[in-house]
Structure formats: structure tokens, C-alpha cells
Design brief:
Helix content is 6%, strand content 43%. The chain has 386 residues and is mostly beta strands. The protein has a single domain, classed as 6 Propeller (Neuraminidase), CATH 2.120.10. The strands form six sheets. The chain has a six-stranded antiparallel β-sheet, with no helix packed on it. The longest helix is centred in the C-terminal third of the chain and has 13 residues.
């Protein structure tokens, strides 16, 4: 198994809106640099998910509340677990009948985890955290191409696929009954593309941030729903063209998959130049690190190896996928499969490792011994330094 490596890429700066100096994310110029997990985090926790039903693919986002974990699972819908990973219930059910949903990989949860809002095609379907269907409302009057949904400031923000024909908005804001609060007209001219990758949203502190792979601008929305430019995707030949694309060459372009932010870092996961990369940008000194992920014959499907070197307990390299705050502490979330853990723990690299927390290494060995290779995935929670 090849070791993943970390790269430093140059940040370009540009004085744009609001007289701020904005970071332009440019993945095309790289220099080598390294970072370990212990440099950014001080604890790691594993949550094996209940094996009472098989879990295939878990979609983003993943929501953590005080007592629960919400996940969207392929062929199962939105599923609720407790914080120990025990299955509590399914939220609603998959189907075409009353109160059921067909699409469920785009959803959101209110701040207390009491209501779940599922984007089901041209409708939003609302459920209680007990799984009860409450209501639905149509989105048809706002046009096709809605891409993502997020609960924010007691309302719902819905963003759009910009490459769809007839899309008029970057985003709209509705109340939780479906009434229009405001719209944001699209920024870039209309175009169509055969590449249907979408954008996304993430929360950080009191704002919500929206990004789209075909747009240069990452916007942030404030509690009063005013907005501003926060940072930029740099222009250049690495960007997706606003036209039909040769699918054979799609892996050469910059395809962002996950974007989020912590107190100290901007975090990106993206495909570029035939590689999947995870980049951390230190917001204080603008130093940036890129973990290159690699395929392995030991893995199946879309599973990748690599990430940030885990010197906390000597476990698998960490691949951050999500972020949340709890009790004034920040956490990044990853996901690994049990067979990956078991394979890693019999490797010489693990056996010879001297992690920062030897007791955590023993806990990981105990966890691995309790897992079967066919068990459901394990959530990884990394607590960031204050």
C-alpha cells in the first residue's frame, strides 16, 4: 500500500468585493509539505454502526445532535441512530405512497434535531424525529434544478444546479411551511452541461456558505439573509467548462465534492487531474496541505486509502467528510469500513507505530477484535484542538 503524501499549493490573492483580500483556491500548482493528525487534533473516537440491517452507501451530509445521529443510507432512506451507533428508527419510508419519499440523499435537520426536511424531487417532505410524516409542500413554482437543502435561522435554504436549463436562482429561502422568504438571482449567465455534479452548503458559526463547481464565488449568508463573497475558486484550464464535457476527460478537471470550514481550516475534498484530494488551508497563515487518496486492490467500490496521517492512535489515515460543534468543541467526521480497520491492524506499519496516545492504540485493537469484516461502517470523530 502506497503511503499518501501531503502537498502544499500556492494561494493566490485578489482584492474583490467588500475591499477584503480573498483567498483563491487553486489546485493546479503544488509543492510538497506534510502534517500529522496530532498537529490539529487531540482526540479520536470510533462509533460502529448497528448491524441490525445492512448499510451500503452513506450520503452526505451527516447530522449530529446532542443525542442522535442522522444518516441518509442507500436503499434505506434517512435513518436515526443514537450517539453510540445503535439503530433507533427509520424516518419515514421509501416509496411512492402518501407520506413516503423516492429521493432522500438531500435532506436537512433543524437545530434541535426535532424535524427532518427531505428534498424529494420537486417537493419537501417534513417528518418528526419519531419518524412520523407531518406535511409536504411543492417547489414547482420556484423552477426545476434544486440541488441541496439546509435548515438555517428557522428557515430553509435551497440551492440550484446552475447547469440546468431555465434555472433562475442561485438560491431561494423558504419558511418551514414552504412560503417564500427571498430569492437570489443567479450570478453567472445561463448555460447547459452534460456533467450533472452539484454544489453544496455548509454551516460555520453564524453563517451558511454556498458553493457550486461551475461558479467562481463561494457566498456566505448572514442571519439577516444579506450575503457576501467569502472566497473564490480560481479560474483557469483546471475549471469545469460551462458547456458539454468530454466525459473521458472529466477526471482532469477540478470537481469539488465536499467543502466545509473550522475555526482554523478551510477543508476541501475534490477530484483533480485523475486524483481524489483532501486539502486543508490554515486560515491564520494561509499554509495549505493536500492529502492524496489512492485506490487499492484491497478495497472495493469507491473506497480509497490515504488521508491525514493518524498519529493519535496509529489507526488508518483520516479522511474528513463533515464537521460539527458540540459543547464548544469542534469535531471533524470521517467514515471507514471494518475490513479496512482489520487489514490495517495486522500491517507492520500499525504494529511498529508509536502514536501520541498509546492507550488509544490499545482501544483500537480492542475495537478491531470486536468487528467482523462484513459489519456496517464505523464513524470516526476527531476532536480538534482549541
Amino acid at each position: 500500500m502506497k503511503k499518501s503524501y501531503l502537498l502544499l499549493f500556492f494561494l493566490l490573492f485578489s482584492c474583490k468585493s467588500h475591499q477584503n483580500t480573498l483567498i483563491e483556491f487553486n489546485p493546479s500548482t503544488l509543492n510538497e509539505n506534510k502534517i500529522n493528525l496530532s498537529e490539529i487534533a487531540d482526540d479520536i473516537t470510533y462509533i460502529p454502526l448497528d448491524n441490525s440491517f445492512p448499510i451500503n452507501l452513506i450520503y452526505d451530509p451527516k447530522y449530529f445532535t446532542k443525542n442522535c445521529i442522522f444518516l441518509s443510507v442507500l436503499n434505506s432512506g434517512v435513518i436515526l441512530f443514537d450517539r453510540q451507533g445503535r439503530l433507533l428508527r427509520q424516518i419515514g419510508s421509501i416509496g411512492r405512497g402518501p407520506g413516503e419519499y423516492t429521493f432522500y440523499y438531500k435532506y436537512t435537520v433543524d437545530d434541535k434535531g426535532e424535524r427532518v426536511y427531505i428534498l424529494d424531487g420537486d417537493q419537501v417532505k417534513v417528518y418528526s424525529n419519531t419518524g412520523k410524516f407531518l406535511r409536504s409542500f411543492s417547489l414547482k413554482e420556484f423552477g426545476e434544478g434544486i440541488d441541496a437543502i439546509e435548515f438555517y435561522n428557522s428557515n430553509l435554504i435551497l440551492s440550484y444546479h446552475l447547469q440546468f436549463t431555465g434555472v433562475k436562482y442561485d438560491w431561494i429561502i423558504l419558511d418551514t411551511l414552504g412560503n417564500l422568504v427571498m430569492t437570489k438571482e443567479r450570478t453567472i449567465p445561463p448555460f447547459t452541461s452534460n456533467w450533472l455534479i452539484g454544489g453544496g452548503m455548509y454551516k460555520f458559526e453564524s453563517r451558511i456558505y454556498l458553493w457550486n463547481p461551475f461558479s467562481d464565488t463561494i457566498f456566505s449568508i448572514m442571519p439577516d439573509f444579506n450575503y457576501e463573497t467569502s472566497f473564490l475558486f480560481s479560474t483557469g484550464e483546471h475549471r469545469l467548462p460551462r458547456s458539454n464535457i468530454d466525459i473521458e476527460k472529466i477526471k482532469l478537471y477540478f470537481n469539488p465534492q465536499i467543502v466545509f470550514e473550522t475555526n482554523h481550516f478551510l477543508v476541501f475534498r475534490y477530484l483533480f487531474n485523475k486524483e481524489v484530494n483532501i486539502t486543508l488551508i490554515d486560515k491564520k497563515n494561509n499554509k495549505s496541505y493536500l492529502a492524496c487518496l489512492e485506490s487499492s486492490q484491497a478495497t472495493v467500490g469507491d473506497n480509497l486509502i490515504g488521508g491525514i496521517l493518524n498519529d493519535l492512535d496509529g489507526g488508518l489515515m483520516f479522511q474528513p467528510e463533515n464537521y460539527f460543534v458540540e459543547n464548544n468543541r469542534e469535531y471533524m467526521v470521517g467514515l471507514i469500513n471494518p475490513y479496512q480497520i482489520r487489514i490495517w491492524l495486522i500491517s507492520d506499519e500499525f504494529k511498529n507505530s508509536t502514536p501520541k496516545y498509546p492507550e488509544k492504540k490499545k482501544e483500537l485493537e480492542k475495537l478491531a477484535a470486536s468487528l467482523k469484516e462484513t459489519d456496517n461502517p464505523v464513524l470516526v470523530l476527531v476532536r480538534l484542538k482549541e
